[in-house]
Write a structure and sequence with these properties.
Length: 282
């Protein structure tokens, strides 16, 4: 099956997938085309079950789906910087889980905490094979965060310059702020520590103030959740993962989120299935 390329200058996240490619993909899913061989998505090898979940409305996406999409977005940002101009780092759920676990498992005083090299390697461009670019020169960090109690995905944008965490949530009624705040508190404390430890942002205002002795401790980041005026509310449950993928894609393209609407979710699912199946990066 030939890989279809779209010129980077005309990529449109609101464009439905090619009907012929979608039809062939569906035939593969149901076995009308031999499907015993798994598809290599660069983040892992997957069969029809993986794609059926991504294709089916209201089906909840797993870490594997999120990471496959984030991997492709990292590749798109690298290959087509004019189409994806946002100076942002895109993390996988594997990396964010590793970062969070290292921070929360530490039992001693925070002043004694030290980030291990295996984590810092993801910040300094060591893992280029998985398209984890160096953090230096970037202004934002993006990742999709799982809220386990609510079984809900949200997109997190870390504004390094403004020292702020922005949360994009397709349905704020699923997880009340009082339940989300303790989760974000962990990130608002660990991110300053990690950003400092990378050594990638020596000219950041907060880090310079610490280096100059103007402050003795890095302040934690302020966290807020975007209102539904900026982020249209989901009409159904189960689609939160798809919304989150689209939020990252749109933000990396420096587009608003008002066109990530419930009436487009089925199309987004189809487009991501086709793009991942055929590895349509461009």
């Amino acid at each position: 099956m030939k890989r279809r390329h779209r010129p980077s200058s005309t990529f449109d996240p609101l464009e439905p997938p090619d009907e012929k490619l979608l039809t062939t993909f569906r035939k593969w899913c149901v076995g009308l085309i031999p499907n015993h061989r798994l598809r290599d998505l660069r983040s892992g090898d997957y069969g029809p079950g993986f794609f059926w979940i991504m294709l089916t409305p209201k089906e909840w996406l797993t870490d594997d789906h999120i990471d496959a999409a984030m991997h492709m977005l990292r590749r798109r940002r690298t290959d087509y910087p004019l189409t994806f101009p946002q100076k942002g780092i895109i993390l996988s759920t594997f990396v964010t889980a590793m970062i969070s676990s290292a921070w929360t498992s530490h039992k001693g005083p925070r002043k004694n905490f030290k980030w291990e090299e295996y984590i810092l390697d993801y910040c300094t461009g060591f893992h280029k094979s998985q398209v984890f670019e160096r953090w230096r020169g970037n202004e934002f960090i993006y990742f999709v965060l799982h809220l386990p109690t609510a079984r809900h995905w949200v997109t997190v944008e870390v504004d390094i310059e403004l020292w702020k965490i922005n949360v994009y949530d397709c349905d704020s009624s699923v997880c009340h702020w009082t339940a989300m705040e303790p989760i974000l508190k962990v990130w608002s404390e660990l991110l300053p520590s990690l950003i400092l430890a990378t050594g990638e942002f020596p000219h950041n205002n907060q880090i310079m103030a610490l280096a100059n002795g103007d402050i003795t401790v890095l302040p934690k980041m302020h966290a807020t959740r975007a209102t539904h005026d900026l982020v249209p509310k989901s009409a159904t449950s189960g689609d939160c993962g798809v919304y989150c993928i689209e939020y990252v894609e749109h933000l990396m393209m420096q587009r608003g989120l008002t066109d990530v609407t419930p009436d487009r979710i089925a199309m987004f699912r189809q487009r991501w299935c086709v793009d991942l199946f055929y590895q349509n990066v461009g």
